[in-house]
Amino acid sequence: MTTAAAIRPSVPAPGDSSPRDNGEPPAVLRAEDARILFIEDDDLCVDLTRSILVDRGFASELTVIAGSMAEASTALGVGVIDVVLADLTLPDAYGLDVVRRCHALAPNVPIIVLTGCSDIELALEALTIGAEDYLIKSEFDDEKLMRAIRYSLARSQAQRQLRATLNELEASNLKLEQSNSQLEQYASIASHDLRSPVRTARVLAGRMIASQATDVDPVTATLGEALEGCLSRIETMLEGLFEYAQVRDLSNSGELRDEDIAEVTNVVLANMEADLLACDATVEVVGHEFVHVHPVLLRSVLLNIVRNSVKYRSGNPLRMVISNERLDDEMVLVRMSDNGIGIEPRFRTRVFAMFERLAKSGEGIGLGLTLCHRAVSLHGGSIWIEDGLDGGGTTMCFTLPAATDSEIAP
Amino acid sequence: VNDAMRRLLEERWPDVREEAQVQLDWLRTAVATNVESLPGGVTEARKVAHQLRGRFGMYGRREASEVAGAIEDRLVATDPSSESTSLEALGEELTVLIGRLETLLDREPALSPTD
Questions:
Q1: Residue in chain B lying closest to A5 (CA)
Q2: Does B56 sit within 8 Å of A138, measured CB to CB?
């Protein structure tokens, strides 16, 4: 005798004409347009289910019956299925293997299990590996089946739309990234090429003033000095822009290495020794964490922040505490506190914007913290500002990836 | 179950019952002659019981589905190769369950009491 009733598969052949020849479902899928793949080897169950589907408005000709996993694979390979209704006991596949194979063949097509297996663990696992719903034949309810199919179709459409939006977003991001990269290249080339003529103009302006030192009229002298100041400022801005434009290239250069923050900090402080002595500074360096960074960028970040502390100090001798500590398994937190004039909380985000300067006077051009933000972000870290020392001042906090070699870490 | 569904189930039930009767006859013979001696043995008997369980459930015969499920579960728990398995006790148990199923099938077409 035959325990599994004869099956009558109606698997579509590739190229079958269909209301949706492009294979893409319409934005709103109606029941009568839904293509259901019913994987079931018991033709009495197939007949009943098909009758229910037709009764509820699903098109009989769009319901594909597969009596085995092999037939189901063919149907899914054609790629015009909107929802799969699958039994778990097939002649050539059993249990969760059915769900896994359907999911592998059509990861975006919802799968509803309709089975005689009432094992709750099996049901949960089926849902975990990608089934949308799990219906038990011994508790069969046509309303539940219809609800499961309609909800699955709705969820599937929503997910499809979400994927489309994400794809668009990714494409836009890519374009933006390319555009930013081109702009940075342009900024890099322009700032590099302009530096030389600007420097020459500044030197020439200085010579012109010097050559007429004895009999120059006061107006010309004033204008000459203003011109020289202007050119000097342009030169500084071009250097800043050039440095900023280099950040991405450096971070992408693959030349990242493990650096001892304290050691790099001490080098930076040594380079700034004259400025620090001039403001009677005391600097305390705490911690010996290692970070995995581009060395030039780490130095640049530290240098910019120390420079700011010197530049924006209060009337008191400068005091700085530069500490580093492990934040978690992946990141190291660096805190650079000073007792300077501080930054009001409302400006603590703004200062990272390009050419943003809070002090109207001084030699800053508003690129230092922008560069720090860029360098830290490109390393996957964050940077922010907190209150500083002695009830004032500023603490620049930033995170960087911890060293990859665990033997280096203290 | 709405009227349309009830009509549909009643209309299809004779075919289901007829097919089920053939399968139950096979099961009864299998049990009577010792399950493991048949081609496919216990595995085939499990498949039949599983199919009946699902089919009766879909056709609204919950009680019959439960009894078929009990047969399936009993066969799943059976290892005929184990010396501790008493085929005689198993046979008696399955015969009782098959008898219950046949009694349920002999009833006039009616949906399960839960419906």
A1: B19
A2: yes
